[in-house]
Amino acid sequence: MSKKLNIVIWNEFRHEKIDPVVTALYPNGIHAFIKDFLKEDENLNVTLAALDDPDQGITDELLEQTDVLFWWGHMAHGEVDDVLVEKIRQRVYAGKMGLIVLHSGHHSKVFKSVVGATGNLSWGRDQKEVIWNLMPAHPIAAGIPDHFTLESEELYAEPFYIPQPDALVFGGWYEDGFIFRSGCCFLRGAGKIFYLQPGHEYCKAYYNPYIQRIIKNAIQWAKPADFGYEIPNGAPQILTKVTDEFNN
Amino acid sequence: MSKKLNIVIWNEFRHEKIDPVVTALYPNGIHAFIKDFLKEDENLNVTLAALDDPDQGITDELLEQTDVLFWWGHMAHGEVDDVLVEKIRQRVYAGKMGLIVLHSGHHSKVFKSVVGATGNLSWGRDQKEVIWNLMPAHPIAAGIPDHFTLESEELYAEPFYIPQPDALVFGGWYEDGFIFRSGCCFLRGAGKIFYLQPGHEYCKAYYNPYIQRIIKNAIQWAKPADFGYEIPNGAPQILTKVTDEFNN
Amino acid sequence: MSKKLNIVIWNEFRHEKIDPVVTALYPNGIHAFIKDFLKEDENLNVTLAALDDPDQGITDELLEQTDVLFWWGHMAHGEVDDVLVEKIRQRVYAGKMGLIVLHSGHHSKVFKSVVGATGNLSWGRDQKEVIWNLMPAHPIAAGIPDHFTLESEELYAEPFYIPQPDALVFGGWYEDGFIFRSGCCFLRGAGKIFYLQPGHEYCKAYYNPYIQRIIKNAIQWAKPADFGYEIPNGAPQILTKVTDEFNN
Amino acid sequence: MSKKLNIVIWNEFRHEKIDPVVTALYPNGIHAFIKDFLKEDENLNVTLAALDDPDQGITDELLEQTDVLFWWGHMAHGEVDDVLVEKIRQRVYAGKMGLIVLHSGHHSKVFKSVVGATGNLSWGRDQKEVIWNLMPAHPIAAGIPDHFTLESEELYAEPFYIPQPDALVFGGWYEDGFIFRSGCCFLRGAGKIFYLQPGHEYCKAYYNPYIQRIIKNAIQWAKPADFGYEIPNGAPQILTKVTDEFNN
Q: Which of C67, C96, C226 should one mutate to test binding to chain D, selecting the residue with the greatest count of D CBs within 10 A?
């Protein structure tokens, strides 16, 4: 219980370097901004990773210690190494790591592969979004009011081509007449995935205290379970009968 | 966070008084036995309640302080006061109290009313049951192996006429060729309900350390959430537009 | 397969008699209006029923022949006989009848009892609603576009205190900044329930061809299954072992 | 409605050629055996496909006409072309094709990629399996009794590392003390997937009339929906506001 959680925040980290508007909002990158508001929690050990780092930011050694992985990508989804994606997928399915996918990560190889989806949606101009709390009893909604407003966020619109989530925690309303499933939980293998829609690079969603609270809650929800046994990697043959245990 | 959880273990408490076999297993009642193995957790404040107590064991004052309610009943389901059942139902739906229904409680007014089910099933002779862990990543499965065996437990057989659970955590195998959905989570209103099948009055399920662990896990899973707002009791009229908030 | 489906459309049928605006929209009642757009389907045998009819419109004989029951109620929920509600609940759970609950029926005894919910929500002024198709592959969404607009519909707002639906087929967007889970499937016992939010007595939702299509689809989805055995009414004792069948 | 459904039964078709026991059971292959019991349905147009056929049995032309694809594979999962797997995945997600995965297909690239799972499980000796009907109201359970027995079937044991199914229709009981989620529905993108566990090449599951009925039901459940619009392939930009439609 007292062990620190190892969090890796992976960010494509391109927009922040080339677009002054984004730089102004997130001067050290979205990942660094998130790390900053997580720092008050002494039980989190947060590492930053970016696409242009060696090994695309995630060495095998780092991955093997990661309890929860964040994923923010947008313009360079295609550059992410398929081998890395597969390693991430296997680690999530093995229940060793939770996954939190942010905003445009809906189209990342990681999200599409881990969740099993095209992740298709429609999108449009930045506008006001109201986030509604659909499952107030869900751990990820702890401390969140029945609704809160984001002054400006990129429009993401239904239909969102995802499997029906295992839990639909938040829904979004947009000025222009659209709605979106904005906070979705998925269970895959022995692992947990949370998708959070707000987080456009031109907007200030990550400044919002409720968004920060949702992200903190999501870490606790997605972190690896306390398994009572070793989750196997493969399809082991059964050599004994349970019924034989009855005679012992 | 440091506030103690108020747990009420309600037990019909009839079998234990009239059947020497049951008395021998649970001399002070099943509820007292459960309280005993919960005592190591200093953050739980456990109260016992029984059908033949005044107010059928649950006064309004007690109910209003209860965070998690256990329910074990069997031979006297019909005697339970409908008004009490409705109060319990409303408190669960309001998200103020979790509910853990044990064994033959599947046919209690409380279970049927709160979950929305007949709770019908078939039943038969006591026999060996193997409990399988179907969702090792679920909080209620924390610390539970892939399977464990109960030497003797009453046969409860599918089809079990419940709505598909929101999470099916455990499945049971029986010697005579039957299976059962033995550990089921339901979400209702803003509250959480867990049903656990083992717990026959003639058997020793509650002596089993894994069953004890499951019950402890279930308390933490079912306890009231940290709501970010007051869950309303009724259907309030909306007098303001969210869009008006945009102008403030 | 060629057997006709017996549909009963139950309507409180009070507003239409006392409010000229409602009378003008639905002169013979909302139930008669629905019957009218169902008449093109020769395989449906539709019966109307109303609160002020003898036996509140539903005799035991009628109920025993009903394959799908519609329920529209609003101002007189409290007058509905609890015994009738329980009969309906049991018939749905037994898988003998589907249930389609319309609009303000979210607060009917039938909905609350069958689904297991308070059905609480917030409500407000009539306004434009956009219905979004969240599960285009669901049978109830057959033939429905990605979205369509209702010129005016009563505002029903989240949080809607229902259990997470087994399928969330439609979501609603409202002018004033609200969203709603507008088309929800629930599985209970061996039966199916569909809740459809549009249908305010002062509005013309039932004139909309997509709403009509949704209602037709819902009948086919909710109708009783072709069960391969008799669903039991109770908890029968098991007198034989499945394992004994192995020796025959 | 009167259009015939195009069914493609893909089979690895290796065991049947090299193992006399399998040849005796399924002389023309498991796929041909399934086609044979489907032939009474005049509305099905069934095509056989095998791994060693040109294009691994599935040309682009064939795939584009396929309404429901069956997949049986075991010893040669690794030989299946990744490009073909991706085409299948996209067609399912687009809602243009249902997918029915049989038995050892749980470890196929197709199942793992489409559903998003490792598909890991444990396995053991052939033995008696009792199939229990957990959702009698589900369309895939139409006409199926509360249970039926397979004289001999390969042991597949929990934990089965799949996401919790959208519907768990059947559960299996095995002599040696194991259970399995034997019939599982998954929704992915706009498509539907059914996994059916019985079907070992050394056993006669496909001879069983209930298994045959389940497969026939699954075709009707998994077939493409009647979409009310074109499911997009990608993430189109939104150029108009829904709210603008209000003014037309």
A: C226
pLDDT exceeds 60 at position B235:
yes
Mean pLDDT, residues D160-166: 93
Q: List the single residue in C137, C145, C226 with the smallest CB-CB distance to D142.
A: C226
Which of A164, A175, A178, A181 should be substituted to probe chain C, the one whose Cβ sees the most C Cβ atoms within 10 Å? A164
Question: What is the DSSP secondary-structure string of chain A?
Answer: --SPEEEEEEE---HHHH-HHHHHHSTT-HHHHHHHHHTT-TTEEEEEEETTSGGGG--HHHHHH-SEEEEE-STTGGGS-HHHHHHHHHHHHTTS-EEEEEGGGGGSHHHIIIIIS----EEEEEEEEEEEES-TTSGGGTT--SEEEEEEEEEEESPP-SPPPSEEEEEEEETTS-EEEEEEEEEETTEEEEEE----TTS-GGGSHHHHHHHHHHHHHHSPP--SSPPPSS-PBP-S-HHHHTT-
The answer, yes or no, to whether residue B1 has pLDDT greater than 50, is no
Name the helix (H) or strand (E) containing D174: strand D167-174
Kindly report the nearest CA distance between residue D171 and chain B, in angstroms. 8
CA dihedral angle for residue C26, residue C27, residue C28, residue C30, rounded to 10 degrees: 10
> Comparing A236-245, B5-14, B82-91, which segment has the lowest mean pLDDT?
A236-245
> Which positions in chain C touch B116 (Cβ < 8 Å)?
113-117, 163, 188
Taking the C-alpha atoms of residue C228 and residue C184, their distance in angstroms, rounded to an integer, is: 27
Helix or strand or coil: residue B172? strand
CB nearest C117 (choices: B122, B189, B245): B189
| C-beta atoms of C136 and D231 within 8 A | yes
Q: Do C90 and B116 touch (CB under 8 A)?
A: no
In chain C, whose CA is at the least distance from the CA of D187?
C137
Largest CA distance in chain B: 72
pTM: 0.95
Residues of D in contact with B146 (CB under 8 A): 158-159
What whole-number distance in Å separates Cα of residue D21 and Cα of residue B157?
Answer: 36
- Of residues A136, A173, A178, nearest to C177 (C-beta): A173
Pairing of strands D44-50, D5-11: parallel
Tell me which residue of A193, A185, A192 sits closest to A225, measured CA to CA: A192
Torsion of CA D116, D120, D121, D125, to 10 degrees: 120
Give residue A151's identity as a one-letter amino acid code: E
pLDDT attached to residue D111: 98
A117/D243 CB distance under 8 A: no
Mean local confidence (pLDDT), D57-79: 98
Query: How far apart are the C-alpha atoms of A51 and A46, rounded to whole Å?
Result: 17
List residues of A whose CB lies inside 8 A of any B CB: 95, 128, 130, 133, 135-139, 141-147, 149, 173, 175, 187, 190-192, 224-229, 231, 242-243, 245-246
DSSP letters, A160-210, are: P-SPPPSEEEEEEEETTS-EEEEEEEEEETTEEEEEE----TTS-GGGSHH
Instruction: Please tell me the total number of residues recorded for chain B in this structure.
Output: 248
Which residues on chain D are in Cβ contact (under 8 Å) with B158? 132-134, 146-147, 171
Nearest C-alpha of chain A: how many angstroms from B224? 7
Nearest to D30 by CA among D41, D39, D17: D17
Beta bridge partners of D173: D130, D179
Residues 6+ apart with CB under 8 A from C45: C4, C5, C6, C7
- Cα separation, B20 vs B27, in Å, equals 9
Pairs of CB atoms within 8 A across B/C: 125
Q: pLDDT band at residue A244, thresholds of 50, 70 and 90?
A: confident
Q: Which of B108, B112, B116, B81 is nearest to B189 (CA)?
A: B116
Question: D30 phi and psi, to 5 degrees?
Answer: -60, -35
